[in-house]
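Tutorial sheet, problem 5. The two components below are modelled jointly, 1004 residues in total.
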Amino acid sequence: MSRPVLIRFILIASLLLPASLCMAFFWPETTHERKTNWVGAPGPTQPIAFYHHVHVNELHIPCAYCHWTAANSRYANYPPVEVCWGCHKNISVTHPQIARVRQYYIDKKPIPWVRVNQQPGYVHFVHSSHIGAGIACATCHGNVGSMYAVYQPIEMNMGWCISCHRQYQKKFHPYQASVDCYTCHY
Amino acid sequence: MTEISRRKFIQLSVLGSAVAASGCEIKPLTRYQPGVYRSEVTGQYGGYDNRVYPYLNQPDGLMDGVPQYFATVCRMCPAGCGLFVRTMGGRAIKIEGNPAHPVNRGATCARAQSALQHLYNPDRLRGPVLHAERGAVKSRERGNAANPPDGRKMITDIVSQPIDWEAALEKVSAGLKSATGNIAILADAQEFSGSPTLGRQLQQFAQNAQASVFSYSLLDDAPWRAAAKVVYGQDQLPAYQLDQADVIVSFGGDFLEAWPSPVFYSRLFGEFRQGPRRTQGEHGKFIYVGPRMSMTAAKADTWLPCNPGTESVVAQAVASVLQDAGFSLVEAASASGLSAEQLQMLAEDFRNGGTRAVAVGGNGLLTSPDATAAFTVVEALNKQVKSQCVGFGSAAIPLPNSRASGFKNIQQLVRSMQSGQVGALLILGQPNPVFTLPNASGFLAAMQKVPFVAALTPFEDETTAWANIVLPTRTFLEDWGDHVPPVIPQGIHLATLQQPIINPQFVGGDGINTLDPPASWMDTRPLADLLVDLAARLGKPLTDSDSRSAVRTTWAKLGQADLKSLTTNNDPSWVAALSKGGLWQEVASQPRFGGGGDVGAGLAPALPSASTPQNWGGGASYALHLYPQIYNHDGRHANLGWMQENPDPMTMAVWNSWVEINMQVAHELGIRTGDIIRISSAHGSIDVPAIPYPGLHPGAVAMPIGQGHTLYGRNAEARGVNPLAILDPTTDRVTGALALGATRVRITKIASAQSGYQIDGSTLILAQDRPGGAEPEAVKDLIHTTAKEWKTAKPVTGAPKTPGSIFNRKSETEAPPQ
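Model answer (structure tokens):
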């Protein structure tokens, strides 16, 4: 490498590296970041710092223990406060966050969770048919079990839905995914 | 660029950092507030709330996103169809028929569908209110009602103050105590006479409080029941099994419309036209006798437009032909306005039906002062041919309360109030006599003499405006109850259960960023619970503690062996009865013609004699033919937007009332569609838009009942006019029921139709005018005739030439293109 070329390379690299580092650090990655342009906090602040990581990855509680209607209903439920109380009546009662959960239950107030995953009003998404077809929760929601604050790693837009539905649309495919507009937009 | 100077380097560095900096400064400030996540205060997709509030304790069996269905009974009209109500998250969202219920077999009518608007009505009372001044009003100058012909005050805005329940109940009990011995209870007959439990509660309350009960609602089946008692020996409305019939002759009975059981008869009528008895191409024969072509008449094969009030004459003529009695067909023909040949053919058609012929009575017979006699003559026809299409079911629970004629009851109440014998009046339900009674009955003036009036009702209406205090009750979708329909299908043993579908204690708060303790936004109480509470405050408690236990007490007394154990808690048979919707089973058919005596000679009405000419051909005065409208019923559904928006099946009119005038008569008088007509009787006048109507006797003008409210919520107020106000208080000679068609009126055109929509409510809106709007097949010709007359009409002289106005259509279309 001749000297002028080397100088030029070093100069350009010295310009681009901090710029790209800067970009990488401030570029929104999660849906929440894109929508809010609040980069650095991947998900919204919840009223309680609930750690999915602790409950799923460490304690191996299955998703359906709390979100049990996903298999039978179009919605996957937010667990009623009594479900939190069921364990934390006795477990870790001194932890400050858990004390807050307990206080909600004792005060008979629902916990005002901030919604993370949401489709627009003109999309009718049905959980039960996807669970029934054997689609894992993580296919759409990402690896929630390793998250602390829940965020949306996959922006669930229509192109993304359709790519999967096309793949499973093939005749005789056991999932028989539909690509009809009226499947979701009605 | 082999050499880069120091200056150049600095320039490039600054540029680069500027680009890098702007890369993370793309946030437009409008998209978020510093320190607040946008998604925390608004939905990501533009909703107002991104919070999710889970249940504290999830109710058993409730799953988000999965509907639950509850069986109950429809109380929107007396018919009492069984319902299945779909609920999501504890809220009723859709109403359909109970497929197993013997009355409706899964079908519903528009009234049941719109019961949701009854439940979620924005004008419902949300808590007890105290009226600082009885009937205190601010007149809003809207429509014809601004100058009511009767001098009645325009009631649109009551001076009312909310008070809490404890104070309200204390006030009512104090008011009742102060008038001990002089308490009158005005009960809604529709609500109380159909419900065994509520009726029993009321009876016991009245007994304990030493009060006298006056049961009233406008549509009154007393003459019909009196006739059934004479002819069949049953104090109950007959159920016409139209599906078994080959020939139906309806004497003014609009059985497919408002009353008494439209869904039941619509179902059977469908069977009559297309059921298993109909071979290829055979439709059965349906003949309608009556002055107006109603929706039911439009479905008949033959419509015989007899003179108003002479349906019974036609029935008598048929009876005499069947018996070969010496009844002069010519005389009957001249009285009824039909030809002797028509009467002869009608009688022969009826005879050809044999035992498969059925004569049907209905609201058309209520119009005359000989209502009981007319019903008797019509029912006697069935007896004469031994029709097997008339049957009776049996009530599984006997109805306890008095079932005298409502109008007779209320006249008695008016007399007591006028003479000052009533110290306190308790209005239960929605009888709304100020609206439904003729002004000439003097109810309002008499009511003003009562020192203390309390109303227990879900809605403010014209009557409750004159109460001292109003306690809001729950609608039938929020309350326990039971019901026995007035028309029980033949051979069915029936009682229906009513259970609360939703928890009426709506929780308040804006739900976004406050977590205030839940406050009841809708704080109403069941009517039966209020009776229990009031009785306890009067020191004479009722035996049942609340509405649920009262229903269970009633149902524990059922005679059936399989339902004997209903009283224990969580009993499977009680749960089964609830989930089924009630109790019904096939029983041996009741004897149809046993027990009844012969038709009383004195009951048969005399023929109108030739010496009293009725001027049926027109002239100065017309018979005012009032009919209960299919959607508004007796006026209690005028506050439902869906009912207002639903076009009348014959005229396609919406959001207003109208008067139908025979087309020929209208032509002679220069009346066109939408012109404002003044209808004057001896008791006042009303101004109402006209519809020239081909299917009407020239001697009559017809108006629907139900519009013209002055105080009944935003959808009902100042819509149309109330024809009941100018009615003659003529009554049926036997039972004292109000005759809806015995009033003679004069008509005068007072204004031509104005172009555009007038805010005063005088504009007639016909839904058929909507381009491409579908017309019902049955009335197509009729509508087209009306529309043609309208379209060929000349533009109204002097009317402003508003572009697009329906009244200037002709001139617009003919104008040469500029």
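Marking note: The two ends of chain B are 71 Å apart (CA to CA). Full credit if you identified this.
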